[in-house]
Amino acid sequence: MCYNKDGEVKMAIIDGKELRKKKLEELKERIKGTKKQLGLAVVQVGHDEASNVYIKQKEKLALELGYYFIHKNFEENVTQEELIKELNILNNDDKVDGIIVQMPLPHHLDASVIQNTISPLKDVDGLTYVNAGKLIQNVDGLVPCTPKGIIDLLDEHEIALEGTNVVVIGRSILVGKPIANLLVNRNATVVLCHSKTKNIAEITKNADIIIVAVGKKHYLTADMVKKDAVVIDVGINRENGKLYGDADFDNLKDICSYITPVPGGVGPMTVYELMNNVHLAYTLRKKK
Amino acid sequence: MCYNKDGEVKMAIIDGKELRKKKLEELKERIKGTKKQLGLAVVQVGHDEASNVYIKQKEKLALELGYYFIHKNFEENVTQEELIKELNILNNDDKVDGIIVQMPLPHHLDASVIQNTISPLKDVDGLTYVNAGKLIQNVDGLVPCTPKGIIDLLDEHEIALEGTNVVVIGRSILVGKPIANLLVNRNATVVLCHSKTKNIAEITKNADIIIVAVGKKHYLTADMVKKDAVVIDVGINRENGKLYGDADFDNLKDICSYITPVPGGVGPMTVYELMNNVHLAYTLRKKK
């Protein structure tokens, strides 16, 4: 438990499940205002166990929201041409507002080419070059879901971003790089750290907000964080059937002013943000 | 004058004119290997005095290199549709390998829409969403000229980038953001600072390399820089007919291990990089 400057008790643990619930209610209201049934298409190659689980989660929430949902599952040996043909059909299908290609793809397929076949207007993972470029240029577009979830968690708790020093650890195109850009666009000063960064603890110790997305259990330890910092933990590390974050939650929770738990922090927001992106994609496409 | 760890004198001042000369000779050799005359088209709206000077510089170097050069100059009242039509003609003209729209444009034109009408394969300013997205995703594409010039200057002096702490001051889409991305792709740890950054001197004092692009005469002062840091000055500030950089050169040159002067540092590299991008655009387009 933490206290603010006036000695009042602050709720230190950010509850992603609670915010997801609230945001879903708001989304349901927004959906009522749309003139058509929203549609999401998921393209999968092969039968990867983890992918199956993720797709089921997406399907469940999509159906709960009343979305039209298509799951196109290709065999492992599908050719790039077949996949591109299918994506072009979905690009031109007015029932479909959002398209995602479930990663990973088999090695004989060029993930970049396939991802960039998706129309930027239906790219609800925000991974096409066009949407990545819009993000860096601070132009409205579709933004990856996990970074958007992080921003929503920070905003919900009225954590100021402008003028703060933020450290992002991890430079993936799905999390680290887009969240760094979103935060720069929100007037934070951002340090993007990664595996080649030296003296990382010296950098994190100066941070008001730390976003850790490295995929290593309890990578961020208490000695790396200054008092009252905010820690956002994007890690999902499985060990003996249990989930662990990238942050050493138990030892950090009394130092931080806010921290996200794993599970129950950033994770629950991601599928909500995907559904929200489907709605946003629809509104962006109708403006065209 | 500076000394390295062994007490040897190091050349502290980075000479952009000299490197430009060397790089131009290398480019001339590369051009000999191309099967066609390279072509650059510059589209200008109105008759802005500074734009005229920049275009003349580009034309001069293009002709020196034997490029085909077209300058399309529209009146101030040209419509967006006319401009888009012209850009599409240039996109489809095989004689043209690179296209730039000279900024600024009059307010009745949407600069984003016009810039993004240029085919990403001919976008030698590297400003389309597609090329900005490729840069952040570390995929080969066309990169803005000034950031490329900075990388060439650093590489020429064998200034290590991997694992260094770099501070970039200024977050423009033409300089600050792309150089930050290029440096992250080269395994530097990058802090992107801007007008909302607090305590900037504390941040710059920890930097191994500082890149300053804020457009304020002598913004970066000696007390903001640690000994033996590298300072790259992108500023071009005119005062009473004289040019000044963003760095207080006279007081910094004895502290830094390397520093670029203004004029004669980053500036001379930029037009060379444009000509190099025309060649690169040709090779990328031929691969398609």
Please provide a written account of the structure.
The structure is a homodimer of 288-residue chains. Chain A has 288 residues and is α/β, with parallel strands linked by helices. The first copy, chain A, has 2 domains: 36-119, Rossmann fold, CATH 3.40.50; 144-267, 3-Layer(aba) Sandwich (Rossmann fold), CATH 3.40.50. Helix content of chain A is 38%, strand content 17%. In chain A, the strands form 4 sheets. Chain A has a 5-stranded parallel beta sheet. Chain A has a 3-stranded parallel beta sheet with strand order 4-3-5, with helices on both faces. In chain A, helix 2 (49-64) links the parallel strand 3 (39-45) and strand 4. The longest helix of chain A is centred in the last third of the chain and has 21 residues, at 267-287. The N and C termini of chain A lie far apart (49 Å). The mean pLDDT of chain A is 95. At the A-B interface, helix 5, helix 7 and strand 7 of A face helix 5, helix 7 and strand 7 of B. Strand 7 (189-193) of chain A pairs antiparallel with strand 7 of chain B, so a sheet runs across the interface.
